[in-house]
Amino acid sequence: MTETTASRSTTGAVSPVDQRLPLLQLLLVGFQHVLLMYGGAVAVPLIVGQAAGLSREEIAFLINADLLVAGIATLIQSLGIGPVGIRMPVMMGASFAAVGSMVAMTGMPGVGMQGIFGATIAAGFFGMLIAPFMSRIVRFFPPLVTGTVITSIGMCLFPVAINWAGGGKGEANFGAPEFLALSSLVLIVILLINRFLKGFWVNISVLIGMGLGYAIAACVGMVDLGGMEQRPWFEVVTPMHFGPPEFHLAPVLAMCLVVVIIFVESTGMFLALGKLTDTEITPKRLRGGLLCDAGASFIAGFLNTFTHSSFAQNIGLVQMTGVRSRYVTVAAALFLIALSLLPKAAFLVASIPPAVLGGAGLAMFGMVAASGIRILQEADIGDRRNQLLVAVSIGMGMVPVVRPDFFAHLPHWLEPITHSGIAMTAIWAIALNLLFNIIGENRSHLCGSHGH
């Protein structure tokens, strides 16, 4: 089936993906996509910025840079430019998969933000090189491996949420009742919305919880907006704001591994979206989507932000609303680009108290882990060897989370891998899957051919 026939439905009418909607509906549904992914999009620069000890002004700049790249990448993914872009309703944003590795890099001597951006550029370039061959690599990433890794991503981020909930890392009054009450309130609001409301409200439950928590924190004097007057109303993101990117071997290798994980996640998401929109995901379409993921990461490093990927929660929104047009995500992309030019809006987001983020973080990171467990259900988890693979991979991933000094005596250049629970889980899951399922499978094939 050719690309043109693939984009037509069986009746010969225009595919739902190519439908043009009335302007008001287009803008409203587009803005809904922005609301849904905004919390996730700004969480990555918030986590990395705080771990790197950046000022609120610098974190606000990181958020603006992230929104700009997310907007550009979403536009290219939805509309397509030449061979790049899947031309479907896909929202892009900074990927959680890289957070563990990047937080580890902030603690490495001589790496800093410039080293993180250098690793992001190198990983994006690596992604563009391997995108055409990804269909061959996918067999090393069955649901057993990807489910284990995604579960680990959620689990490795829990300490971040718990630190936030207690008032923030380094907070002298950590665990004070007011911090615990605020984070609990945000979490309870999210849970109640998911229990008693439906549809759109459920999709923006995290945003509502954080908004209410922020309002209460502001009323009791827990929000500090000092310095906001100095922020301009309008500002264009400048490339290499933190200095020229630097390239260090271990961070680059760790981020290249992250890009492979992102590719596997995105492939699964694109296939799911194809089913929802009655669109055949041809190898050409898949390659275009993965090239956009990698290209966005490559550009991101120059524009002061991080590896980008497709956002799964927005695919859920496509399913819920039934609006399958890619022009909806084009509208959403334009909203993101507009927001990136408004530093005061980003400063407001950067001033959210850690305790508010903590309540939302527990729910958000828990959902990441839960989606990994859901993917694991597609694997033969009744097989004892597969259970052992999940157990050992996640166990090894927890080592740097529970005891960050566990590998302290190993060479420093290994730190982005040994300090990242996600990278550790991925390496062990791939290796054990090779040992248990692929090498043995090939050997039994050989035995079978000798028998004939």
Automatic annotation (TrEMBL):
What UniProt keywords are attached to this protein's entry?
Answer: Cell membrane, Membrane, Transmembrane, Transmembrane helix, Transport
Q: What membrane topology is given?
A: Multi-pass membrane protein
Q: Where are the transmembrane segments?
A: 21-47, 59-76, 88-108, 114-133, 140-162, 174-193, 200-223, 249-274, 327-349, 355-376, 388-410, 416-436
What cellular component GO annotations does this protein have? plasma membrane
Q: Where in the cell is it found?
A: Cell membrane
- Molecular function terms from GO: xanthine transmembrane transporter activity
Q: Which Pfam families match?
A: Xan_ur_permease
User: Which family does this protein fall into?
Assistant: Belongs to the nucleobase:cation symporter-2 (NCS2) (TC 2.A.40) family.
Q: Which NCBIfam families match?
A: ncs2, NCS2_1, pbuX
The identity of this protein, by name, is Uric acid transporter UacT
